[in-house]
Design a protein that fits this description.
The complex is a heterodimer of chains A (about 160) and B (about 140). With about 160 residues, chain A is mainly α. Chain B is of the alpha+beta class. Helices cover about 45% and strands about 20% of the residues of chain B. Chain B has 5 helices and 5 strands; from the N terminus they run αβαβαβαββα. A 5-stranded mixed β-sheet of chain B has the order 1-5-4-2-3, with helices on one face. In chain B, helix 3 links the parallel strand 2 and strand 3. At the A-B interface, helix 1, helix 2, helix 3, strand 2 and helix 6 of A face helix 1, helix 3, strand 3 and helix 4 of B.
């Protein structure tokens, strides 16, 4: 128990995928622009639906396959990074990948709102995703830091109740 | 309709992000008479003889690594000050007990294991140094 709990974060992170920290932030910028357009186009626009499908697939690639498959990350690596040069340091890929998963959940909720003609669901889900993307792009906000532990606490509390 | 929601989302993001930029990583002294405490048995690690930084981290938290580096650097010079990095997920008992809402959260314990300061978000170096000075200074007095 002592060994497991006193392991440092950095040693736990050894061997996990690494990412240029500017890539997720750049991707969040593209995501924010798309989500803003989707909100303005509204819950009945076919163009908006097409954009929302594209963004949902982008989240799905980043979440389910990994950041190396995230389309905006590929755009960054192909067109932006060659102009910037190498990053000062690499970052653990798990926090931004977790953010992609959260984005995927909201994008799917937004899609459901569109498909089932529930405009309130559509606007709330896409607006939440937009706020998260803006915070990430502008403030380098870490979504995993905010919601991961809360989720664990809720889930852990429920599991404990079920066990008792 | 869409434009209003877009404007609202922008405002919320700027207000929340700006608020965080101002308050994140600030050290707050723990007030009240019944300050919670932690001992070596529960932490599974040895406390510093003068002070201990207890850091709660998680795998999906990028600033936790910078926090780890900062606290390692600050404590390296003084063998009487310890730094313990805890995986919050593995210690949900402590997370519940101390009301940890997000990572990184740092608790600064004095020589007796009493929680004296609390820093939520990636700590600022000046705040860390000042909080440590207060704790070790009052221990010497």
């Amino acid at each position: 128990m002592t060994d497991a709990s006193s392991l440092t974060t950095s040693s736990r992170n050894a061997g996990f995928a690494q990412v240029d920290p500017r890539a997720p932030r750049f991707g969040a910028g593209i995501t924010a622009v798309l989500l803003a357009a989707i909100i303005v186009l509204g819950p009945t626009s076919p163009v908006g639906l097409a954009l929302l499908v594209v963004q949902t697939l982008a989240f799905a690639a980043g979440s389910l396959i990994g950041l190396q498959a995230q389309p905006w990350g590929i755009v960054y690596r192909t067109f932006v990074r060659p102009r910037l040069g190498p990053p000062a340091e690499l970052e653990d890929a798990r926090p931004p990948r977790f953010a992609q998963t959260v984005g995927l959940v909201f994008a799917l909720a937004g899609l459901a709102g569109f498909v089932f003609s529930l405009p309130v669901l559509f606007f709330i889900a896409v607006a939440f995703a937009l706020v998260a993307a803006l915070l990430n792009a502008i403030f380098d906000f870490c979504l995993g830091c905010e919601v991961y532990l809360l989720g664990k606490r809720l889930f852990g509390a429920r599991a404990a109740r079920a066990a008792s | 309709m869409g434009w209003w929601i877009l404007g609202g989302a922008l405002l919320v993001a700027l207000a929340f992000g700006g608020y965080r930029r101002l308050t994140d990583g600030r050290s707050r002294a723990v007030a009240g008479d019944s300050k919670p405490r932690l001992d070596a048995v529960r932490l599974g690690d040895v406390l510093g003889t003068e002070a201990t930084f207890v850091q709660f981290s998680s795998a999906v938290c990028a600033p936790c690594r910078a926090t780890h580096r900062l606290l390692t650097e600050v404590t390296r010079a003084d063998p009487a000050v310890a730094h313990i990095d805890i995986d919050a997920e593995a210690r949900l008992d402590l997370v519940d007990e101390f009301g940890i809402m997000r990572t990184p959260t740092v608790l600064l314990l004095d020589a007796g294991g009493v929680v004296r300061h609390r820093i939520v978000g990636a700590p600022r170096r000046a705040d860390v140094v000042e909080a440590l000075r207060q704790v070790t200074h009052s221990a010497a007095a």
